[in-house]
Amino acid sequence: MHEQLGVSTRALSLVNAVTASPPGVMSIHYNPAGLSSLSDREMTAGMLYPAYLKKTSKFYASDKFPGFLGGIADETDPLAGTEGTSTSGAMYIPVAGSHSVLAAPNIGFSKRTPGSDYTFAFGIYAPYGIGVSHKNDNDPADYGGGFVYNQRLVYAAPSVAYKVSETFSVGFTVCLGQTSEGVKLDFRAPNDIVALTGIIGDLPTDVEEMIPSGFEEMLPSPLLGGGLPLYNSFGSFEFDVKDTFDTSFNIGVLWEPYSWFSFGICYQSEAKSRPSGKYRFSYNDDWQNFINWFGDVEGLNVIMELLKLPIESVNDETGTVILDEWVMPQRVQFGIKLSPVKRVKLLFDVAWINWSKINSDVFIFDQNIQLLQIATLLGYAGGMDKMVLERNWEDVWDTYYGVEIDLSNWLTTRFGYQKRKTAVPDSNYDLTWPIQNWEIFSTGVGISFTSQLSLDLCGSLLVGKNHAIDYNESKLLNNSDFINIIYNPYAGLDYKQDTEAFLISFNFNYKW
User: Fold this and answer.
1) How many angstroms separate the CA atoms of 326 and 420, rounded?
2) Does the pLDDT at position 212 exceed 80?
3) Is 356 exposed, middle or buried (0-12, 13-18, 19+ CB in 10 A)?
4) How many domains in the chain?
5) 316 domain residue, yes or no
6) Does residue 348 fall inside a structural domain?
7) How high does pLDDT run on average in the chain?
8) What whole-number percentage of the chain has pLDDT above 90?
9) Is the backbone peptide bond immediately before 487 cis, with ω within 30 degrees of 0?
10) Distance CA 446, CA 343 (A)
């Protein structure tokens, strides 16, 4: 799931080409001016659920990669030729915590005093969400994001629309929301420096043959505690953060001068949040032996302490982390509706989304982190208590196409298509934001049981094929430059990703 997909079943079946033909009560989100078109009292309740979600990550040895240390470290990455597949979605459920499931509820109601030009409404919905979980043993994606979710839930959206004239309406919605993000991954760092520690650590353990007599106690063996593993994990990292109060607003305009033509505009403001929560770094024996070796070397341990570098290992580091700022970007969507014949609506929308507001993720920890302390020694400039991940996302223009056909007084069919471009550039692609280019094919029906009760159903297919990140292309995935130590778990490998998802959605609607 991604932005704008879980708010309304009718909108999803038309791939959100609804700005000029807003979808009932959930016009709250898509164009609040559309509330003026409703009857005096309406309500809706529904759910989106991915019946099928499969993200496949494939890793290949690159023939352009010379090997670490210019080929001296000639080990073959065991991940070359492997692939990993997600087993389910992932999300944060308020109160219940994070789980390997993905769904998006929506509920809303509207009321207008008979004869009034004002319509009031209230809604709850999820305008944004993405999450995947990899639970298969030895899944190579575990190093990039074995469990990851990012989402925003609007838990209160009061809205009002005013009918200026018979053909022109305006509307306004205030959105109070919760932003959540979580990640679990195994940590590895294949690069030249790590390869060098392994080579030094594998030198003969009889240091008397290597150094002058009397220096044995100064350089305990094995050197560097045996070094760090080049291709294996030496720890894990996980966090869950949330901001339970962020705000945004939606402003909409709807002009319907003719029965066969309408035009709509909706502006959705950005939502800024500063999520906070808990984290855990866990370190295995390889890492702990490496750190303890520096503490055992006389003189070196003093220098390490002066440089605020670790000399005594720990099993875990836990505490509080703050995501400095997360922005759900502003967007503007324009739409037209054409009805060449009475029972057919042709819908076309175009939207601009300001994803370039996302420049970096900055995680601020409540203490110096051993991993970041060692990374600082190797040239990392983010800080010993900060993890800085460069994003530099790009603004996106999207187009949406929908067709709605009233087959009878009680049955409506809908179709939609969108080719959705990712905002994530290849230069900063990673598996915590595995958002590739997608094609979305949707179809749905609206069934009126009575003049008061109706049901919308939708099935939507999302397909993303052959998203390729060549070796060294991404600074957050497979760059082999040793100064990019945070974070390139697949350095030296080519990467390809396929994503398929089938979403089902329903909404019950009631007028009275």
Assistant:
1) 22
2) no
3) middle
4) 1
5) no
6) yes
7) 94
8) 86
9) yes
10) 14
